[in-house]
Amino acid sequence: MIKTLSFILLVLLSLYSIISFIRAQERFINVKYSIKTLIGTGAGIFNLDGLTGLATNINSPIGVFYEESSGDLNFSHTLNNTCVCKDGFYGLDCSLPICLKAENGKCANDTTGVTVENIETSQLSNKSISLSSGNLTESSVVSVSFPSDFSHYISNQTTFSSVSLLTAVSTSGNNLTNSNSAFSIVSNIITISLALTNGKKIPVSNLENPIQISFQKPTSYSGNLTCMYLDELTNEWKSDGVKTVIEPLTVNCLTSHLTSFSVIDINLRKEIGKPKESPSVSNQTISQSQLSQEAIIAISVSIAGSFIVCCVVAIILSAVICLIRRKSKK
């Protein structure tokens, strides 16, 4: 009897030790009881029951790091705790969808790829980048140059030591029309944004030294080119806060903020937006004038004709009456 009780107690103690060890490992590995692990060339999330697996957006992870705030084990592609994400995602664990507004407020990544570069804030000053989409020629490359004090500006906006630089280039297509104007876009549309690794957008506005965006000068235009930006709140193209500098081969846009930019043919904008007298109105006026003259003539002719007919009828009646009276007298 004593041996049996001792055996049962030993078994219970062993089970308790195993359960305690497992729970300790769970808390040490992940406070959320999930582990991100490698599956082929991607990644997945598995619950403790071993049944549920969700695909993630990381490409080819080779490094592992522990995220204290969430308790996740992250597999990264590089050695600086960042991930190489699939198209359309960014962030520390590639869980943030990208949406850079371009034409008519639509996401730029709907029609073209978005480039995401994780960069130290100290490396932003004097940084230059060249952008193009896959279907563009070398002559359509757009270059961007940040000012010398840009790192200092971003450091004042956030305490993060690194940020995500998001850029996209899309073709302009046909003329864009908004609520009050029509525009002829003669360049590609470039969209630039800065964000933290947690997805929060870094506001960039009122820069003392502007960011320069250089577009290739179009081969044909009406003669008055201007740089404009897309106001994301109203979905309208505006030019305030953007300076245009035209050189023999390029159109340089100097801006104190970041959003979507393009070169507009302002002459064509005036031609399209200029109110014109409706041809139908003038034609209608002429038609009414002509109609009035014709109506007067027609009425006059009708009256004259009616008068003549009445006279003829009166003459005939008078003649008939006279004949009848003569016959009566005889």
Automatic annotation (TrEMBL):
Q: What is its main location?
A: membrane
**Keyword annotations for this protein?**
Disulfide bond, Membrane, Signal, Transmembrane, Transmembrane helix
Q: Which domain of life is it from?
A: Eukaryota
GO cellular component term of the entry, any: membrane
What start and end residues bound the annotated signal peptide? 1-24
A single Pfam family it belongs to is GPS
Q: Which residues form the GAIN-B domain?
A: 120-271
Question: In which compartments does the protein localize?
Answer: Membrane
Q: Which residue ranges run through the membrane?
A: 295-324
Protein name in the entry: Predicted protein
Q: Which organism is it from?
A: Naegleria gruberi (Amoeba)
